[in-house]
């Protein structure tokens, strides 16, 4: 079986790490195409190196741009890649970024079977670019690899049950593996000055929190006013928007740093009192690592994390001070995100449906 994985943005590299590992030693040909959506060393190379992902077979170097220009450039370039070599049995696309949609569209128009990993997630917020990307990709794809039963139910509601298989969550594979590897490590030097259990980790990068200067200022003000130090790994979008609007990130409780390698992120969360984020992936990682999470949004694609108040939605930054620092709730029974072997289930499902 010939499978081409198309990735471009940081959360996709984490999912790819699990999938590439599961393909190792299977005899299948697994090729990796990187669109170049994320190109900074800390956003891309550091993830490939840190997670032991094989170097991409093809790097398109598309980079940043408006949604149309970025997605369109990827669509055209991917068509050349898919037509250039032996025809794949599957094009595998991941998550909800512009790279996901471009790869799905490009492959489907060439009649190459498309599998969507992390299918069926919904925020039901039609303003989010990620929601456009995931809905359109699910309806274009031939095989929908759902991480949870709830995601499968969302797909069934849209008439897509026949194309759906629940495989578990590949991000859980990686976070659980990484947790076991870093648990005994000391906090990294850049986190010096932070004491175990007495700081928060925060990330902000969504368009809905960063593009409107008033909203961004309110979010940053609320984080800076928290009663514990806040380790803030700064995403390039936050860095650029904050600089453009004169919003300082090095004040009050904030301890800004560049984007962290994956293992350092996991270690930082394990050492923290909890996290504040608008990232989809980090909400779930914090949940799986057993720390309380506060989400700076009105909805989540991962409603399982809300159980017992492990994750609390906080769309109004003015409310953040009341909820961000809280005790750990009662443990959740069961494993809504699978048993840490989802990537093997992905490979088996692709084999069965090739
Ligand atoms: C993208 C995804 C989002 C995902 C996120 C993870 C889309 C529409 N959004 O958002 O779903 O959660 O990745 O990080 O696909 N930039 C750099 N260096 C980089 C990458 C980006 O400087 O390596 C800057 C550029 O100024 C760019 C901005 O960040 O304009 C935004 O990057 P982009 O890839 O458009 O979207 P993200 O906000 O990263």
Short overview:
With 354 residues, the protein is of the alpha/beta class.
3D architecture notes:
- The model has no long low-confidence stretch (mean pLDDT 96).
- Helix content is 41%, strand content 15%.
- Helix 12 links the parallel strand 11 (274-277) and strand 12 (293-295).
- The protein has a seven-stranded parallel sheet, with helices on both faces. A six-stranded parallel sheet has the order 10-9-8-11-12-13, with helices on one face.
- Helix 1 (10-23) packs across helix 14.
- It is globular.
- It folds into two domains: 2-169 and 338-353, Glycogen Phosphorylase B (Rossmann fold), CATH 3.40.50.2000; 178-323, Rossmann fold (3-Layer(aba) Sandwich).
- The protein is of the alpha/beta class.
- The chain binds uridine-diphosphate-N-acetylglucosamine (UD1).
- Uridine-diphosphate-N-acetylglucosamine binds at residues 9-11, 37-40, 43, 64, 96-98, 129-130, 205, 235-237, 240.
- Keywords: Isomerase.
- It comes from Yinghuangia aomiensis.
- This is UDP-N-acetylglucosamine 2-epimerase (Non-hydrolyzing).
- Belongs to the UDP-N-acetylglucosamine 2-epimerase family.
- Pfam families: Epimerase_2 (PF02350).
